[in-house]
Design a protein that fits this description.
By secondary structure, the chain is α/β, with parallel strands linked by helices. The protein has a single domain, classed as P-loop containing nucleotide triphosphate hydrolases (Rossmann fold, 3-Layer(aba) Sandwich), CATH 3.40.50.300. Helix content is about 35%, strand content about 15%. A 4-stranded parallel β-sheet has the order 2-1-3-4, with helices on both faces. It is globular.
């Protein structure tokens, strides 16, 4: 790490779609960590506070030059792209976890609103595939010398906000405004709740 980790470090919020990654981006941004976004994907009924996305992230395997823009900032990245992070930099990865039933219900609601349908795979099969992929990436992350990783449960952020904010600020090498982070959490947007919790 450098003498000024807040300047050179890159924070990445990752996880499955609909696992709370946008909420985490909002929380960190409110706390004072600048978010690297391009504003291309607009807020909508599924994410009324915005998606906080940066399109160039998707091309990281072909072009990682944009990472210089991410220094001292937080950027959102789908978990499967973490494998393509160059090893010449250091990253703090916040891996969002959420009840798989809730994730799939939220994804289905979004697809229906967009007039799209899911694939032929059953919900149970999809849940098993996603869970296996997440477990695999979490194990891989634990073995990477250039990556520090913390797993955060979506429901914990909503139900025990102050505790989770303490956990995040202890993990990240930057000074953040805890009160602003706590205030940024909106439990009213928790619309897909698992029936078995």
């Amino acid at each position: 790490m450098s003498d000024n980790p807040s300047k050179n470090s890159i924070t990445i919020v990752s996880g499955l779609p609909r696992s709370g990654t946008s909420m985490m981006m909002q929380l960190l941004n409110a706390g004072g960590l600048p978010a690297l976004t391009d504003g291309i994907r607009r807020s909508d009924i599924d994410n009324p506070r915005g998606y906080y996305e940066f399109e160039r992230v998707k091309q990281i395997k072909q072009d990682a030059s944009w990472l210089s823009q991410a220094e001292g900032k937080v950027v959102k990245m789908v978990f499967s792209l973490l494998y393509d992070l160059p090893t010449d930099r250091h990253y703090q990865v916040i891996l969002m976890r959420r009840n798989m039933q809730e994730i799939l219900a939220s994804q289905q609601s979004m697809l229906e609103r967009l007039g799209k349908t899911g694939g032929a795979v059953t919900t149970q099969q999809l849940a098993a595939i996603f869970q296996q992929q997440l477990d695999k990436i979490e194990h891989w992350l634990s073995l990477q010398a250039h990556i520090d990783c913390i797993s955060i449960q979506y429901t914990d952020v909503l139900n025990n906000t102050a505790e989770e904010v303490d956990k995040l600020t202890a993990f990240l090498p930057v000074a953040l405004n805890k009160d602003a982070m706590v205030s940024a959490v909106a439990p009213a947007l928790y619309r897909q709740k698992a029936t078995n919790e």
